[in-house]
Amino acid sequence: xxxxxxxxxxxxxxxxxxxxxxxxxxxxxxxxxxxxxxxxxxxxxxxxxxxxxxxxxxxxxxxxxxxxxxxxxxxxxxxxxxxxxxxxxxxxxxxxxxxxxxxxxxxxxxxxxxxxxxxxxxxxxxxxxxxxxxxxxxxxxxxxxxxxxxxxxxxxxxxxxxxxxxxxxxxxxxxxxxxxxxxxxxxxxxxxxxxxxxxxxxxx
Length: 204
Fold this sequence. Notes:
Blueprint: H1 3-15, H2 19-29, H3 34-46, H4 50-57, H5 68-84, H6 88-105, H7 109-114, H8 119-123, H9 146-156, H10 161-168, H11 172-186, H12 191-200
Helix pairs in contact: 1-2, 1-3, 2-3, 3-4, 3-5, 4-5, 5-6, 9-11, 10-11
């Protein structure tokens, strides 16, 4: 089962209030990919197992080496575990840490995904005032098509061109064509730059 399909299935089970099934789907994949560890921790937290969630979220554990979005989500889940345990001081400190990391990468989606518990903590975070000479936020040249967004999502998961093609049931040449279009619309020339720009534009 492909990584993206597994993550979607797990999220669907969680949305339906079935964290046990979400955990089961993720456990079938195995491995220690950071994005899987975060998803598994979210499922365990929803199932009432904060200890199991925190073991997965340990900075020296499976989440190590994950990208900024993975690390922000991991920090927010640790904050949620502290909040659930009534440790508001730790929750507040971790939310501030997540906000600081997210600001560097201009990430917003992890906070929308976190749920209503995080809102009071975010309200207490001091406002951020960028320097007057800061660069303006990037603008998308042209909207991505649905298939281009599918390719971009898998690009952010560090999948190879061949893996993306297999996952989407298209040819490698088709994926390359979509990638060229994505690069053009994001005004970049490399994969890493495309992922970073997409995060800045809140496309991931």
